């Protein structure tokens, strides 16, 4: 019972986190590609409750930032005018979940713009870019894991149910793929694909590559499950009653693999999100201006940004809860499926 | 011995398979290094065609693979278009640097993980163990990228470490002792990042496998004989738990290699990572293949080493392989 409760807790946590990213348009105050050229590299604004005169405000407020005299990238708070934060206010147009046209945002300011995580070189809101970038990166992880698991399921099922030379050939191939250093292979394949492509094509290109490279481990696990399921008494009985191959597979063998596949999904998704991040960070993934968790950080490769604008780093920390959620989910799924003797190597690369 | 021969054969099969795969990947490529030249009005189309013929990029795949194998046997590993020379010398220098980083980090990571894991397994379920588990979980989920960038920011702000490259500008003029010191200073940051990124994985596995054997009757008997706790843990429990850990050793090399790819780029360490990235951007085909094969070679080598270690450490495997 305890395992189940822990599992639910992690699922709820992940659900909330993904919900925030999924409804990014609502939670983000601005459009992720909207530029505010007058305020590049603005540091994060802070919420205040007490103003300069010592008066308490029930509604939190921020101070607008203005350039310090004789500087081009240092800002000071304009403490004369508190800017109260408005909730559920109308702002930039966006499409909720990609199709519902909407204008409401969770919060915003009436007169000036609010930047809770600062801005980047073009004055784009880092918080909005973080949330919308999450959509790209998490979707890449989910779709990539989907591709891997479907390939793994097919190959594992074929190897397990046919046996013989097909089995040996496929398993040798799987061994080969598992012996290759994963990230290097990803790079090598990426190297042979077109570099300068539109963001959408780049996105599908890299999820396909990421998804295909990782097929070996799930395939081996599925094969193991299929082999053991084939010898179960109820499967033999069904076969004795004249069940066809297709029926046996659909009715008895496929459900057995679900536990393995779920655990693998919880392990693969964060790993693939990281892979997308790595590729985008190095400029081989989703290109600007579309935000992704990787290319949000890529400006840190410039020494001047690294030294002067520490808030560009903040998105890196914001991702940690997601990975923690998936780790928790993976380990509680593993605990639940311990009876299936799932391979205990989690977080394998 | 048969066990080792079999493992060696397997390693060779993996390397050969990896090279075939790498060549199959190249079939995906929409263009070659010379395509960009065609856009350059200063280069005549005939020149490009001549270059293409000279480097044999138009030949069918099996022929290219055969000539590449030939060049591997000559110690060249193909030809780098961008550097205009054989690939192998290029890679060897970079691979040496990567290896320096990876081996150092492996040693440090294991030297820290073993005592920490044993310590944690010994006090399983107590507050200190739970705190450590939480700590490793948090460290485990911090992406390598975030870790490396965070360390870099701290280093830049504190200004006490060199933050990029492998040597200071005046490296050549230093005395040997100072050269070593300079190198060590430059290694601190990438090695710390690599150790921190693998440490949680290792600590968790050491803890789990030591905790598994800690309940064994032979340990209770040893305790009853009055054998001190430390001897008990390190002389009796750890060797019994070694088998999965040695397999993990081979696996951890793979993690480190992948991790170092990124960390080298972030911290501008002149290893395989930056070279590979450049080669990808320049479409320098054989450098990419070479880089992938070098890392596969290291990974397979590490696993082979782990196999030998296992043969040496686990009498069951020795007995099994000799009985046959």
Notes on the protein architecture:
The complex is a heterodimer of chains A (349) and B (324). Chain A is of the alpha+beta class and 349 residues long. Chain A folds into two domains: 45-115, no CATH class; 129-347, MetI-like (MetI-like fold, Orthogonal Bundle), CATH 1.10.3720. Helices cover 56% and strands 13% of the residues of chain A. Chain A has 13 helices and five strands. Chain A has helices spanning 2-22, 24-27, 126-162, 164-179, 182-191, 199-213, 216-230, 233-240, 245-281, 293-297, 303-308, 314-318, 320-336; strands spanning 48-50, 56-67, 75-84, 86-96, 100-108. In chain A, helix 1 runs antiparallel to helix 13 and helix 5 crosses helix 6 (199-213). Chain A starts with a helix and ends in a 13-residue tail after the last helix. The model of chain A is unreliable at 339-349 (pLDDT under 50). By secondary structure, chain B is mainly alpha-helical. Chain B has a domain at 97-274: MetI-like (MetI-like fold, Orthogonal Bundle). Chain B has a two-stranded antiparallel sheet. In chain B, strand 1 and strand 2 (85-86) form a beta hairpin. In chain B, helix 5 crosses helix 8. The relative contact order of chain B is 0.15. The model of chain B has no long low-confidence stretch (mean pLDDT 83). Classes of the chains: A alpha+beta (349), B mainly alpha (324). At the A-B interface, helix 4, helix 5, helix 9, helix 11 and helix 13 of A face helix 1, helix 6, helix 7, helix 11 and helix 12 of B.
């Amino acid at each position: 019972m305890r395992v189940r409760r822990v599992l639910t807790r992690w699922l709820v946590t992940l659900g909330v986190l993904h919900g925030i990213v999924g409804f990014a348009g609502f939670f983000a105050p601005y459009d992720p590609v909207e530029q505010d050229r007058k305020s590049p590299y603005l540091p994060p604004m802070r919420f205040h409750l007490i103003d300069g005169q010592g008066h308490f405000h029930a509604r939190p407020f921020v101070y607008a930032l203005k350039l310090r005299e004789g500087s081009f990238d240092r800002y000071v708070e304009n403490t004369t005018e508190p800017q109260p934060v408005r909730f559920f206010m109308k702002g930039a147009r966006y499409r909720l979940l990609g199709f519902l046209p909407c204008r409401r945002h969770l919060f915003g300011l009436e007169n000036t713009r609010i930047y809770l995580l600062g801005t980047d070189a073009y004055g784009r809101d880092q918080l909005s870019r973080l949330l919308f970038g999450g959509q790209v990166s998490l979707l890449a992880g989910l779709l990539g894991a989907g591709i891997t698991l479907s390939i793994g399921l097919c190959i594992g099922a074929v190897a397990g149910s046919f046996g013989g030379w097909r089995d040996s050939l496929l398993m040798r191939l799987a061994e080969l793929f598992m012996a290759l250093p994963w990230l290097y292979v990803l790079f090598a394949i990426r190297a042979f694909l077109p570099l300068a492509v539109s963001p959408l094509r780049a996105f599908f290109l890299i999820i396909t590559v990421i998804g295909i490279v990782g097929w070996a481990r799930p395939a081996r696990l599925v094969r193991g499950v299929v082999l053991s399921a084939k010898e179960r008494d109820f499967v033999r009985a069904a076969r004795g009653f004249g069940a066809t191959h297709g029926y046996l597979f659909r009715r008895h063998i496929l459900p057995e693999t679900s536990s393995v596949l779920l655990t693998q999904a919880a392990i693969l998704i964060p790993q693939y999100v990281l892979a997308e991040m790595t590729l985008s960070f190095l400029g081989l993934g989703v290109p600007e201006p579309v935000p992704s968790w990787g290319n949000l950080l890529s400006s840190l490769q410039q020494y001047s940004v690294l030294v002067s604008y520490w808030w560009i780093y903040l998105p890196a920390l914001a991702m940690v809860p997601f990975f923690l959620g998936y780790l928790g989910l993976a380990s509680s799924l593993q605990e639940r499926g311990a009876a299936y003797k799932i391979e205990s190597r989690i977080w394998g690369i | 011995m048969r066990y080792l021969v079999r493992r060696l054969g397997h390693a060779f099969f993996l390397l050969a398979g990896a090279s075939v795969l790498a060549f199959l990947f190249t079939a995906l490529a929409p263009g070659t290094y010379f395509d960009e030249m065609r856009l350059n009005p200063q280069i005549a189309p005939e020149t490009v065609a001549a270059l293409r013929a000279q480097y044999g990029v138009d030949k069918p795949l099996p022929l290219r693979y055969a000539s590449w194998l030939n060049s591997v046997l000559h110690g060249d590993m193909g030809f780098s278009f961008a550097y205009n020379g054989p690939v192998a010398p290029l890679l060897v220098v970079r691979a040496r640097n990567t290896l320096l980083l990876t081996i150092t980090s492996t040693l440090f990571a294991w030297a820290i993980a073993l005592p920490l894991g044993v310590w944690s397994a010994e006090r399983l379920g107590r507050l200190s163990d739970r705190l450590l588990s939480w700590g490793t979980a948090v460290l485990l989920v911090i992406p390598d990228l975030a870790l490396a960038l965070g360390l870099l920011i701290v280093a830049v702000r504190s200004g006490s470490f060199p933050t990029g490259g492998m040597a200071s500008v005046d490296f050549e003029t230093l005395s040997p002792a100072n050269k070593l010191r300079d190198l060590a200073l430059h290694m601190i940051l990438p090695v710390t990042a690599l150790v921190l990124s693998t440490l949680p994985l290792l600590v968790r596995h050491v803890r789990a496998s030591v905790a598994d054997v800690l309940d064994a009757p032979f340990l209770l008997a040893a305790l009853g004989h009055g054998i001190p706790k430390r001897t008990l843990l390190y002389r009796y429990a750890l060797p019994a738990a070694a088998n999965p850990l040695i397999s993990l050793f081979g696996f951890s090399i793979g993690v480190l290699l992948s991790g170092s790819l990124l960390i080298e780029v972030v911290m501008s360490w002149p290893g395989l990572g930056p070279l590979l990235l450049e080669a990808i951007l320049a479409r320098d085909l054989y450098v990419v293949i070479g880089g992938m094969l070098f890392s596969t070679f290291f990974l397979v080598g590490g696993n082979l080493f782990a196999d030998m270690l296992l043969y040496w450490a686990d009498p069951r495997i020795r007995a099994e392989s000799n009985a046959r």
